[in-house]
Amino acid sequence: MPTVSMTVNGQAVSGEVEDRTLLVQFLRENLRLTGTHVGCDTSQCGACVVHVNGDSMKSCSMLALQAEGAEVTTIEGLASNGELNPMQQAFMDNHGLQCGFCTPGMVMSAMDLVAKNPNPDEATIRENLEGNLCRCTGYHNIVKAVQQAAKTMGG
Amino acid sequence: MAENGIGASLKRKEDPRLLLGKGSYVDDINRPGQAYAAFVRSPHAHANIKSINSTAAAAAPGVVAIFTGDDMAADEVGPLICGWAISSKDGSPMNMPHHTCLAQGKVTYVGDHVAIVIADTQEQAKDAAELVEVDYEELSAVVGTADADAAGAPQLHENAPNNTCFDWHLADNKADVDAAFAGAAHVTKLDILNNRLVPNAMEPRAAVGDYERSTDSLTLYTTSQNPHVARLVLSAFFGIAPEHKLRVVAPDVGGGFGSKIYVYSEETACLWAARKIDRAVKWTADRAESFVSDAHGRDHVTTVELALDGDAKFLAMRCSTKANLGGYMSLFSSAVPTYMYATLLAGQYTTPQIYAEVKTVFTNTTPVDAYRGAGRPEATYALERVVEAAARELNIDPAELRRRNLIQPDQFPYETPVVHTYDCGDYGASLDKAIEIADYAGFAARRDQSKAGGKLRGIGFSNYIEACGIAPSAAVGALGGGVGLWEAAQVRFNPTGNVTVFTGTHAHGQGHETAFAQVVADQLGVPVENVEVVHGDTDKGPFGMGTYGSRSIAVGGSAIVKAGEKIIAKGRKIAAHLLEAAEDDIEFTDGNFTVAGTDKALNIGEVAFAAYVPHNYPEGVEPGLDESAFYDPLNFSFPSGTHICEVEVDPDTGTVEIVNYTAVDDFGTLINPMIVAGQVHGGIVQGVGQALTEGAAYDPDSGQLVNGSFMDYTMPRADNVPSFNIDTTETPSPLNPLGVKGCGEAGAIAAPAAVMNAITDALGTENIDMPATPEKVWRAAQAAG
Fold first, then answer.
1. Best interface-test mutation with B: which of A129, A140, A144 has the largest number of B CBs within 10 A?
2. Are B509 and B393 found together in one domain?
3. Which of B170, B187, B215, B659 is paired with B363 by a 20 to 30 Å CA distance?
4. What pLDDT sits at residue B2?
């Protein structure tokens, strides 16, 4: 089996994978970074969103081998010294999560949104999160969380 | 009130781990040496299995074992069950088909389980499953609810003639109700469909079965809303292992909405196989499997009629429903369209007579069972659609027609003609508040404004009631239920004064670890951060019935309060001894035992320490401070409220925009208003999904689920829905110690009727069914001119 090497959450990692192994499987199975979730099989739900070279990416939509040499950040890589980052804190402050299963992908997508659009209005937030399904929150408090985080993060 | 006690919008204790990626869901759990399972599923809706040849699959790389229904039968694994017995009008028992864990001889829906393939890796198991050759004799399929019992329809089960499970009515009062209709000044009649929904919790179902050879015991890690019930069913009915040799763990569970109540074939087969091969066996559903194998919800065809007198007072109601059960019965699938449905048809109104009949039918589709609301959304939809239609026919303001028929606050306890006795409520207060928040007075002007822009604007009401706090065990038993529905709790002071609380309920998004800790903090005066709530493991804490039917705070919370009362009673004895006072003179407030009228006091933490280090201790009192309680509710609880939806319809494209949504709910006492609001938001969006976008679509000939993926089944996304205006009124339930009612299902119950009443108002026709997709709305708009 081929070997793939990349940087995940600042750490150099490598592992043997099948040609067909998806990036999300490599993260979950090889690295045991189980914060990234799999909620569907058609790249529709967004539970597996991570950052690849600074952009949000559904990690079920690329092969592990395609991430050779890439800088990958997962939900486990956001906190520093165990402290929630401003987006994570905003989700907690605004009750933007319930069962927590969509949350890692939702937070990673929201981070990318705020990085690219520091001052988004509600419509922009809703439009940009349409690739992330949530069945619990009705999105109401997720939108509020992203609005708070955008302010905190200097929008 | 203790800081962060009852009523505080405390941020959730569960959030940091879930936000840091440290949650532990079943698919995150791996056991040493585990193998992986994949299921061979029927590609046909209806077929006889002539033979299964697994020779090629068994020779594939990594394959450990392949088992079929015959193998499980040889081990005498019992059939899947339905736990609620319903009788037909003629007194005959329901026709429950034999439902084996893996099919034997016949399959009845696409996705039905034919074999389990176990291999060293997940990919190997899936690859090998493709190599299992099943020789099917295809049979004609029946899919639609309305014609499943028609003469000549393909027959699913030998013991269910005309595909009928039962033909039931709530009471034999049809003649009386017919007489009331005959004397009515006005009758409004609607034919409506309640569309079939796929629950789609974001976490797919998963299971890890694990066998411990040294103790001959099994552990099942599973995505369950009720791990103790799962253990009971796996033990008592399926015979997998005796209860004391079986541990069921439901760790972090990523949403349930009813679909994770049931014990399914997959986890049963994984657990059974783990002992068979002496290795842990893991399975995680693909979403495609979830679509066809998670129990679906709703799927009713209903005719509802309302009779009114000359003053527009409701005289009587008739409701005739056919409900689709799918290919087999499921754990509570007989109760959902009967006692969870017909008993709610009085709604908030004084309607004196109601006749309700329900026929349930088998079809070649995925089994149907409870999905968020479970019967109560169907009842609310039928009732609130017909009430709104009656208002329009009589040209009476829909709010006024409702107000004229509401049960008044001084009429409680109120016995409806359909079983329930409501404990309390002030329905007019919620209606008035919702009308004010929604600016109902300004609607006419807004409608004119929309009209000027070429749009149609409509407004719709939904006054709902639900029966939650499920349920008084004796009442459940009297109606055919096979279980008791009490709840259990254990409150354990540790020697250092912090508290571990065990509950038999299960949280999968509801925030019990926070809300239950608030209840304990409030009652015992302990800082909330020193209270840990433990659930989801049958080896920890007492047997419990789990979480569904918005029961957890009303029943589980009450059990915690009862255990806390025992803690205080024992603490009082210990404190009296230590403070050298009479027990009757000891008062307990804010965590302190005080001698009345003095400043002599001991904190409950000091009392707990004394209980574990009982050197100076009252005679006859046991050491330790650790109390359990079981709580069987006196009645259901009855949350209620008014939801008002305002939509704008584009008649040229058929698109519907929800421009304003107001919800005013009465959940009794609120433990954590932030969590309650989140439950309402989520419920509303599931209801909006039912009304606008969702619906399982089966090909009527082949029985294939044609929208079985997230690309095709349109779950609401962030840009499909607005933010909501929500508020509450509060009439605390007099029947439980917390005054709570439950809030988990209200949104999903109220929203479909509110949305559809708004759309029908905008279109000027009642002739449209859910989901009101742009195509349907456009056609209805054209037809209505």
1. A140
2. no
3. B170
4. 60
pLDDT exceeds 90 at position B784: no
Q: Does residue B102 share a domain with residue B244?
A: yes
Q: Which ranges in B261-327 belong to alpha helices (H)?
A: 265-277, 287-293
- In A17-154, DSSP assigns E strands to 49-52, 55-58, 71-73
Summarize pLDDT for B46-59 with one digit per residue, the tens.
999 999 999 999 99
Q: Is the dihedral of CA B428, B432, B434, B440 positive or negative?
A: positive
Q: Could you give the CA distance from residue B307 to residue B353 in angstroms, rounded to a whole number?
A: 10
Residue B637 contacts residue B413 (beta carbons within 8 Å): no
Tell me, yes or no, whether B620 and B742 share the same domain: no
Q: Which residues in chain A are closer than 8 Å to B508, comparing Cβ atoms?
A: 99
CB B240 within 8 A of CB B77: yes
- Distance (Å) from the C-alpha of residue A60 to the closest C-alpha of chain B? 13
Residue where a domain stops, chosen among B601, B631, B661 = B631
Question: What is the pLDDT averaged over residues B424-452?
Answer: 98
Encode pLDDT of B347-363 as tens digits.
999 999 999 999 999 99
B521, B600: one domain: yes
Chain A residue closest in CA terms to B21: A35
CB proximity list for B243: less than 8 A, separation 6 or greater: B231, B232, B235, B236
Residues A36 and A98 in one domain: no
**What is the rounded distance in angstroms from the CA atom of residue B468 to the CA atom of residue B488?**
17
Kindly report, residue by residue over B128-179, the tens digit of the pLDDT.
999 999 999 999 999 999 999 999 999 999 999 999 999 999 999 999 999 9
Kindly indicate whether the ipTM for this predicted assembly is greater than 0.95, answering yes or no.
yes
State residue A155's pLDDT score: 57
Output the pLDDT for position A129: 98
Query: What are the tens digits of pLDDT across the range B642-671?
Result: 999 999 999 999 999 999 999 999 999 999
Q: Is the pLDDT of residue B110 over 80?
A: yes
A100–B23 C-beta distance less than 8 A: yes
- Contact predicate B580/B616, CB 8 Å: no
Is the dihedral angle over the CA atoms B514, B515, B521, B524 positive or is it negative? negative
The domain of A16 spans 3-77
Does B352 reside within a domain? no
Q: In this structure, are residues B28 and B21 in contact, taking their beta carbons and an 8 Å threshold?
A: no
Place of tokens 């796996």: B234
Give the Cα-Cα-Cα angle B361, B364, B365 (nearest 5 degrees): 90
List CB contacts of B47: < 8 A, sequence separation 6 or more: B106, B107, B136, B137, B138, B139
Asked whether the beta carbons of B329 and B165 are under 8 A apart, the reply is yes
Report angle CA B374, B380, B383 to the nearest 5 degrees.
140
Mutate to test the interface with A, among B12, B19, B676 (most CBs of A within 10 A): B19
Over the range B24-56, which residues count as b (16 or more CB within 10 Å of their CB) and which as e? Answer: ebbbbbebeebbbbbbbbbbbbbbebeebebee
Per-residue model confidence as pLDDT tens digits over B545-582: 999 999 999 999 999 999 999 999 999 999 999 999 99
Domain shared by B605 and B728, yes or no: no
Q: How many domains does chain A have?
A: 2
The tally of domains found in chain B comes to: 3
* Share of residues in chain B with pLDDT > 70 (%): 100
Check: CB of residue B351 under 8 Å from CB of residue B316: yes
Query: How confident is the model over B125-129, as a mean pLDDT?
Result: 98
The reply to whether B709 and B740 lie within a common domain is yes
**Mean of per-residue pLDDT scores for chain B:** 97
Total beta-carbon pairs less than 8 A apart between chain A and chain B = 176
Range of the domain at B431: 374-465+637-784
Residue B158 backbone zone (phi > 0: left; psi -120 to 50: alpha; other: beta): alpha
What does the pLDDT read at residue A154? 78
Quote the minimal CA–CA distance from B257 to chain A in Å: 9
Shortest alpha-carbon distance between residue B203 and chain A (Å): 6
